[in-house]
Amino acid sequence: MAKLMNWQLLKRLTLLQSFILLCVLTLIAVLVVITMEFAWAESLRKRIGETDWVLPSLVAAVLLTVTAGIVTMAVLFYRWKLKRPLEILKQASENISANDLGFRISYDSRDEMGELITIFENMRAQLEKNIKTLWRSVEERKQLNAIFAHDLRTPLSVLKGYAEFLATYLPEKKLSDEKVLDLIHTMNLHILRLESYAEAMASIQKLEDVPVHRRPMDTTPLTALLNDSAEQLTRQVGKRFVSSMEDANITINVDTYVVMQVFENLVANGARYAASQVNVRYVIQDGSINITVTDDGPGFSDEALHKADLPFYRGEMWDANEHRGLGLYVCKVLCEKHEGSLQVENHPYGGGSVTASFGIGLINS
């Protein structure tokens, strides 16, 4: 126990205190050896009498003793106080140079070298944290850019459908002026939505930062706008679209752009897998508007039911090169931003079914 306490006490010595201690011990040892050398010289003088080589030999022995003491003290000080911490710092520096920050260093001495290693470890930990934060930011920006590119396709497809519709029927004068103005108004809404979306995506760093701006809107024009988009999306892939609304017209507080973004993602996914038809059902319930999109396709696999709303999950898609596995993940995040949720399941009669709910802040009925 006494040895352990003495060793712990030695570890607490500073470099200066350790140096002084070694100097004192070395000095004592050197003095002892020099005393023995003088005794040896005196013994020789008495034995062989006065000679010319005894004194020079004594001086040389004393100088060698002092030199040996100094060298020994330096070696002991280096091995005791400097060698181990310098090796630790050298290895840590090599790891950092190799971009390896997944290590930890420690040194059990409480001297200046121990403090230096503690500071170095804190610096390494902070550097590792900063690099992880930077990489996370880069990955979130890459993911956001992918989401942006993915979600631009849907409203652009809708606008393309309207443009083709006008190009087909307007020259034949099969559209009334009222219908043309209505289509132009709807297209303008989609253009404004794209502008707002592009502005928001340029200013945020991750999907969770997407702002939600609620405004009062009647459910009848909202569902009509959504249905128009759905008809364009399903028509382009040769599928039918059917919708139903169980409640009467009421005024709700929603972010139309967020609702449309989620809705169009769900309809686009449904149309991709539907055999012939996509169904949409609107229900106002418990302070939320629930939008259920159902298709008559093969439905979700067991794996997809658990992973479909994870980022970049693709499963076994026939058009995996086009789809990036972002749609349902985007919908999930945006629903939660809008105080709602996303539920993925299979319809009892076959086909996939996804329900998006949004908190609506009911105004009146």
From TrEMBL:
Keywords: ATP-binding, Cell membrane, Kinase, Membrane, Nucleotide-binding, Phosphoprotein, Transferase, Transmembrane, Transmembrane helix, Two-component regulatory system. Residues 80-132 form the HAMP domain. The keyword Disulfide bond does not apply. InterPro entries: HAMP_dom, HATPase_C_sf, HATPase_dom, His_kinase_dom, HisK_dim/P_dom, HisK_dim/P_sf, HssS/ArlS-like. It is a multi-pass membrane protein. One of its GO terms (molecular function) is phosphorelay sensor kinase activity. Coiled coil: none annotated. The chain crosses the membrane at residues 20-41, 53-78. Residues 147-362 form the Histidine kinase domain. GO terms for cellular component: plasma membrane. SMART domains: HAMP, HATPase_c, HisKA. It catalyses: ATP + protein L-histidine = ADP + protein N-phospho-L-histidine. Its EC number is 2.7.13.3. Signal peptide: none annotated. It is found in: Cell membrane. PANTHER family: SENSOR HISTIDINE KINASE CPXA. This is histidine kinase. It comes from Paenibacillus sedimenti.
